[in-house]
Amino acid sequence: MTKKKKKFLKILIVFFVIEIVILLISGNLNKELHIGLDDSGKFVIKNIEKPFDLQKKILEDFQPDQYLEEEGEEPQIYGSEKLYNFFKNVFGQNAIGSFRLLRMLLIVDLLLIFLAILIRKKLFERPSKPQILFELIYTVFEEFVDETLGKKNLHFTPYIVTLFIFIWTCNMIGLIPIPGFMEPTRNLNVPLGLGIMAVAVVHYMAIKTKGLGKYLKGYAEPLPPMAPLNFISELSKAVSISFRLFGNILGGSIIILVVSSLVKFIIMPVGLSLFFGMFVGTIQAFVFTMLALTYISAEIAE
Amino acid sequence: MEQIARAAALLGAGICMGIGALGPGVGEGFVAGKACEGIARSPENASLITRTMLVGQAVSESTGIYSLVIALLLIFST
Asked: Chain B: nearest CA to A152, how far in angstroms?
């Protein structure tokens, strides 16, 4: 056991030294290594000198359409040109960005559906290991719903658990270091849609439990002239709950990009990914579901 | 003129982030301190107190997030 550990430590130290040497060498280089086919079809390996601009890098990563427009480049189309033209017709100026977002959302959805089918196929009385994991998640959230809403409203648990698992998977999928992979929650549209959905559920439940008359009367609570203020406070619920998730994930990914550009993209910022990717992602997914639960309980509890 | 506007936007983004991070920092520290006191007084309620603390901190953090969004708007839209 100890021998294995020593060997592992040696390999780790060698890798660390190699990375530091590469870092020192590349400190004042502004070159990119290109390996591939030339325009004329020849195989070439060459250094291309490129002035590095951090803001352009961030723009390229976060708003690819605007970057291409500013650079005056034509987008490279892999695969079918029909699909690109279709997206350009539907989304207008943000064709590439929205295509990336939809692609990531599709990957997350397919992953979750596939997992659900796999788990559903192997349900036993004596649970297997993955079944225990998913039952644990479900039981924990069932307890939360039981504490805040009471035994009567346990039918909210599937919605809450789905919200948590979806947002958590969205936050985690950005950790996979493949070019083009990003967190779907980095785009404002996804959190805003989830937030509006949560607020819609809250108001539907309020109307269902209180009745329409009492619900409308709730807007004129202290005095009738206060109605617009109450209405704005209901709207700001959706805005604040979605901007919180969006800002945290976007800020974390920008910090990771800036720090890894300082070391010329040689060392992967593992510590930063651990904090901003895993810790903040989990906390924000948890907070989103807890706030949705709290909003529902504030309307239902009498 | 354009460069002056750009410089002012960058300066404004820095000031916005600096002042906007003051409030959430003080508020979150206060909440964490109070939660520590609560856990020390009744350790059997630790999980409930931690959960409430996290939600409260996230709510008080939202003003900081708003200032981050405004700073990003100032940097990337001028």
From this structure: 21
Q: Which residues of A touch B (CB under 8 A)?
A: 55, 58-59, 63, 144, 240, 243-244, 246-248, 250-251, 254, 283-284, 286-287, 290-291, 294
Domain count, chain A: 1
User: CA A115 → CA A166, A183, A218, A275, distances in Å?
Assistant: 12, 19, 43, 26
Residue A48 covered by a domain: no
CA–CA separation, A158 and A138 (whole Å): 8
Degrees, nearest 5: CA angle A106-A111-A117: 125
- What number is the ipTM of this complex? 0.79
The C-alpha of A111 sits at a distance from chain B's nearest C-alpha, in angstroms, of 29
Long-range contacts of A66-73 (CB under 8 A, 24+ apart): A68/A96, A69/A93
- Note whether residue A189 is domain-resident: yes
Total CB pairs under 8 A between chain A and B: 39
Mind listing the pLDDT tens digit of every residue in chain A (302 residues)?
678 888 888 988 888 888 777 666 665 556 666 667 777 777 777 666 666 777 788 888 888 888 888 877 777 777 778 877 887 888 777 788 888 888 899 999 999 999 888 888 877 778 778 788 888 999 999 998 998 888 888 888 999 999 999 999 999 998 887 777 888 998 888 999 999 999 999 999 889 888 888 888 888 878 888 888 888 888 888 888 898 899 889 888 888 888 877 766 666 677 788 888 898 899 899 999 999 998 898 888 76
Specify the fold of B25-78.
Answer: F1FO ATP Synthase (1.20.20)
Contacts of A247 in chain B (CB under 8 A): 65-66, 68-69
Q: Which of A144, A244, A286 sits opposite B62 (nearest CB)?
A: A244
Domain extents in chain B: 25-78
Q: Give A176's DSSP letter.
A: S
Instruction: Determine the structural domain holding residue A267 and report its residue range.
Output: 122-302
